[in-house]
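Researcher: Let's continue the batch. This sequence belongs to ATPase, and it's 863 residues. Same format as the previous ones, please.
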Amino acid sequence: MRIQKLSAQAALASLRSGQAGLAAAEVERRLRGFGRNILEPVRRRPVVERFLRSFTHFFAVLLWLAAALALVAEGYEPGGGMGVLAVAIVAVIVINGLFSFWQDYKAERELASLARLLPQRVKVVRHGALAVCDATDIVPGDVIQLAEGDRVPADARVIDAQSLRINAAPVTGEAEAVFRDADPTDETDPLQASNLVLAGTSVVAGEGRAVVYATGAHTEFGRIAKLTQGDDRERSPLLAEIARVSRIIGVLAVVAGIALAALGLRAGLPPWQALVFGIGIIVANVPEGLLPTVTLALAIGARRMARRNVLIRHLPAVETLGSATVICTDKTGTLTLNRMRVKATQGPVNALAAVERHCHTLKRSDHGWLGDPMEVALVEHAGPGPLYPQVGEVPFDTERKRLSTLHSTPQGPVIYTKGAVETVLPLCSHCAEDTGAVFLDEDRRAAFLRKQEDMANRGLRVLALAWRRNPDADDPERGLTLAGLVGLEDPPRPEVPDAIAKARGAGIRVIMITGDHPHTALAIAREIGMVEGLEPEIVTGDRLRVMSEAHLMLALDAEDILFARIGADQKLRVVQALQRRGEIVAVTGDGVNDAPALKQGDIGIAMGLSGTDVAREAADMVLLDDNFASIVSAVEEGRAVFANIRKFMTYILASNVPELVPYLAFGLFGVPLPLTVIQILAVDLGTDMLPALALGAEPAHGGAMTMPPRSRRQGLLTAGLILRAYLLLGSFEAIAAMSGYFAVLSAGGWQWGQGLGRADPLYLQATTACLAAIVVAQAVNVFLCRREREPILDRTLPGNPRLWWAVAVEIGLILLIVYTPIGNRLFGTAPLPAWAWAAGVPAVAAMVVADEIRKRLARHDER
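Model: Same format as before. Here are the structure tokens for ATPase:
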């Protein structure tokens, strides 16, 4: 049984209630049976469990292992620096774990924001008397009283209404106020039924009474809340890729560490030295600075997006947006200004203006007109002119579909009427022309109907305006004179067409999903360039409801497609269908109804100005200006973030080779260990960090929005990146490092096979030369990594001042490590003579030449 199909009395009877409401004893009985009018939180893992999971993922476990081994090594040889290494690794784990936990914990706030939309106190009729009670105490069968400014506490059937208008935007997503009355309706969709008021909506005008038929989780509001809580979005492509890269690098590092430690034992190394050897291999291959560098690079991208009116709530969304292949966008307020204006008219200007100026229910304030945006648009279109006092009104209702106001004028009473053409035109006997009123014959009626159809096909909302002097007291709306027709629109934002074109050029598909009428949706889509074909695929909510999954997937193949009259669950279904096609989907929304789709999408984008708390909490980012063009600007920044992560991954991984080769030389050839583990950490978490971050701050490349989105299969760790980092850049850096090491040993008279104590001044100088050569090579390498194909001295070189500052700090840090007592003590270094810095320069110069040749060949292949 659908309560909207029943009469008001039958609706009350079906709930075993009446005009006098429920008795107190019955309310208590129903509270026990139905429960309180609240949204129960979804059971989740305990906070402590979720907190611990943030510190036990694969990469974290790998680092815990390295820290544990370092502590064991410290026990074998106290004071060797392994204890400091263990503490530093644990600090990395803690920083990243806290960040991950915070991102998970924010999901709990979604349900709390849903509950905040519900009112705390409600006016209710019980046992014939009006009372005020907590919204949580409302039960099915309660009769509630509604007035302007009230929020609706539960789903209810209107049983009495006087010009009752509801703002249903939090549930339907459409900003236009809708009328509600007590008459039965055949509409099956609760969101569209004209006699239902739903939890979370609010009264903007009029008053009425309604009988509650659903509370708590059983309301439409509760159903949407369940969808929001129940759909766990897959992690972002970036996080998935970082996890994949971590697993690959981690497995390789552990396998190499164990294998080479075993090899060291067979070569005759003492067990503790073999353990140090194995730890060194693991630490050298695991880029400890990767996760914090990625996090900070995303934060830099988020800060840039904020300057483009996009607020990031979930850092991985920065990059995810850059990889989006589809943007599913609302219409109202995102593509349009969410402000009605008169677009077209038919009829004499003066006649139309007289009706526009008088026939409304607006209120005047210090800030302008308050009320229905459509009426505001009409009054503003009328312009200044004489105003006559209102002395009567025939209110609007959903059956009449018109409003009439009676005014006192010097020439006598005049009634002004506006409403739907099909209800106003039959009441008119004459029509206005420039020469005066003429008889409205069939030809003229047909002409007005054709004009109405033309306006409607252009997506305009069409109203008929009429008046009559000295109206009949018994039937004031009879014998009207038609002033003409007015077509209103919510105009597109002026910057949106360019943004749509830019998105198309970047290979991003833009699909409108709106609750508005198909004609209006199509007209806006054509105007902004979203639809260009003659026969676009238009899928309405009714059609989607009966479509199979196969039919929906086939419909999505259409080049031009839009969705109109779409509900919350249907929007969610469209997003899921796109994801099954392999798309990375960005979804915009502002209402409670949009929350499930926002959460399901790979990237949820809520409106900052018109959006509800629920939508903002479910989303990954918020448009501060509600403007679609800001999304496209943010896409460019997102693409830059991914490119920058690849740049600093190349930079970070390149240093793994010169950190690994010294341990191979130590374990396989018996030379004194050229680089200690603590010195590796000095590079990974010290000197390399700022240059890597500077690469993460590189501005978007000029061609970022002329390329298609990257494929899901295109990872961070590609064969090309590995070959460049390890075989090309890393190999030359390793040669530079070992050149510096052996140059110092040779100058000090060392002979092959000769042992050196850890505190030997020659050994300290030699390891320092190895470390210094790596840092110098990395200082040059950072400029090579700025561009994958452009030369090191391209015209954009001065475009990132952070890079120059980072290199200056990098050089400053290595000088402090080499030439200060505290640096010598912490990192096991010793001051170097000036000539030792030059030992690795030939290898570094060769590295530059080799990479420039590679870049030139890559540019040639592109052409």
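Researcher: Any comment?
Model: The chain has four domains: 3-34+118-230, 235-304+643-862, 310-337+493-626, 343-487.
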